[in-house]
Amino acid sequence: MRTFPMGGVHPSENKLSCAKPIEVLPLPDVVTIPLAQHIGAPAVAKVAKGDRVLTGQLIAEAGSFMSANIHSPISGTVTAVDMVVNGQGLRQMMITIKREGDDWAEGIDRSEALVKVCSFSAQEIIAKIKDAGIVGMGGATFPTHVKLSVPPGKKAECVIINGVECEPYLTSDHRTMLEHGEELVVGVTILMKAVGVGKAYIGIENNKPDAIAHLTKIAAGYKGIEVVPLKVMYPQGGEKQLIAAVMGRQVPPPPALPIDVGAVVCNASTTVAVYQAVLKNKPLIERVV
Predict the structure, then answer these.
(1) What architecture is the 30-99 domain classified under in CATH?
(2) How far is CA 39 from CA 47, 54, 69, 79, 270, in A?
């Protein structure tokens, strides 16, 4: 069974929530939303105190190419756009919204109906991902539209979906793969089209046999997508380790990136968000635990 060739440990697992289904959170009365919640430049507020906003409405715009749009997770009234102390004890610009009802912005498809056909061009896909504020949900919060914008002179050979989740406590990607497998696989086809490749791998450690079986069954109906079971090994969820495990290629030291060995890596939950952004017109707002 594949894994990366050098180093690694296997810490004791405590996947306490792996058998618990995803739950919808109750709506909070007030939210305070940081404008710097992604790698790159902070977003720039597009609302002011007293403005009424809807769920899914753009409230802050990307501050540069390496940045991401931010959308409101609730509907209500903006009560402040000001510096607030964050969890690290540092002051940063945030938008505070007091909830009023649960009204959504127009055009967002909230139905559970699966959409399989993506008629958008690669450029249109990347633009929709950028507009939706999609960032890496595996922890790095790297703007996804930047990752999919392959630099001139570089060429992608495959997409790798990171379903490893090697950390000993985390189970969110595991549950996402089980409960949103169809959306995930359609998201893979969208990513493949965005970067112009005919091959994708979904890497999953073998401590998640149910996810491996589930996605293998779904992927059988799609061309070019292969589920790759991996030996349990930390930190296999890192991009470089995952590329080594799946492709047998080593990403050179910085400033080299995965694209330098032909890979574009995307987290499993991010891939579902890509599906929702492109085919459901839903920005990156989450209400689950």
Answers:
(1) Beta Barrel (2.40)
(2) 22, 25, 12, 26, 15
103 and 275 Cβ atoms separated by less than 8 Å: no
Tens digit of each residue's pLDDT (9 = 90 or more) over 154-166: 999 999 999 999 9
> Distance between CA 269 and CA 141 in Å, rounded?
12
Nearest Cα to Cα of residue 161 among 128, 126, 204: 204
Domain boundaries, the chain: 30-99, 122-280
How many helices and strands, by DSSP H and E, does the chain display? Answer: 7, 11
User: Could you report the per-residue pLDDT of 219-254, keeping only the tens digit for each?
Assistant: 999 999 999 999 999 999 999 999 999 999 999 999
Sheet (strand 30-34) strand order: 30-34, 91-99, 76-85, 52-53
Superfamily of segment(s) 122-280: NADH-ubiquinone oxidoreductase 51kDa subunit (3.40.50.11540)
DSSP helix/strand/coil, 229: strand
Local confidence band at 289 (pLDDT 50, 70, 90 cut-offs): very low
Comparing CA positions, the residue from 104, 111, 126 lying closest to residue 57 is 104
CA distances from 140 to 8, 131, 143 (A): 20, 19, 9
